[in-house]
Design a protein that fits this description.
The protein has eight helices and six strands; from the N terminus they run αααααββααβββαβ. The chain has about 200 residues and is α+β, with helices and mostly antiparallel strands. The termini are far apart.
């Protein structure tokens, strides 16, 4: 995976609450060089890249977002972290179960037929303001027809990283086949919880 150095350096500096000069001292460059890195005008040479990555991966300086990404990657349950963008959502992190059973090891959700309901839900939630910050979360019940009518309780939670980029954290929990699960799976849209309680 290619590293976006401008985003990496800026988010790390903001997370550590450092001015560019202080960041420069930590990675062994000038303040002007940090400014140029953040602007995407230069790429760090190997020793500087290593210093940046050491700082970013140090448990004492790792962001909560990095911890969330690691939690998703190593979860024993199906979960997913999507980054939103103009080209639609892309997979930022996925648990092994999610990658195997739903994504079929694709990195784009639109290439995974088992996620048709997720795509439909995300479209509906986006129209309702999921990415504008007025939705606390949403939930829905899916029926997975690709694997003998298995039911899932699905939770959508919008989050932002330290740079302000939008992500959606998605978790799935298996449900027993029941009349209630079947009725909930027939709902056309997810249930939305808004910050104002409506």
């Amino acid at each position: 995976m290619e590293i976006d150095w401008a985003k990496t350096v800026r988010s790390l500096r903001l997370r550590l609450r450092l001015k560019q000069g202080a960041m420069a001292e930590l990675i062994g460059v000038s303040q002007t060089y940090v400014s140029r890195l953040e602007a995407g005008l230069v790429l760090p040479p190997a020793p500087v890249a290593e210093a940046i990555m050491r700082l970013a991966e140090d448990p004492r300086t790792r962001s909560l977002f990095d911890d969330l990404r690691a939690t998703v990657d190593h979860s024993p349950f199906p979960c997913l972290l999507l980054q939103t963008g103009p080209d639609g959502p892309s997979v930022e992190a996925a648990s092994a179960d999610m990658a195997r059973d739903f994504l079929a090891n694709n990195r784009q959700i639109h290439d995974a037929p088992a996620l048709d309901r997720l795509i439909s839900d995300l479209d509906a939630l986006t129209r309702q303001g999921l990415l504008e910050g007025n939705i606390l979360g949403a939930s829905a019940v899916w029926v997975d027809r690709h694997r003998s009518d298995r039911f899932w309780q699905v939770r959508y939670t919008p989050i932002r990283d330290e740079t302000g980029a939008s992500f959606i954290h998605i978790t799935l929990a298996g449900l027993a086949d029941s009349p209630a699960a079947r009725a909930a799976a027939n709902d056309a849209a997810p249930r939305i919880e808004r910050f104002n309680g409506s």
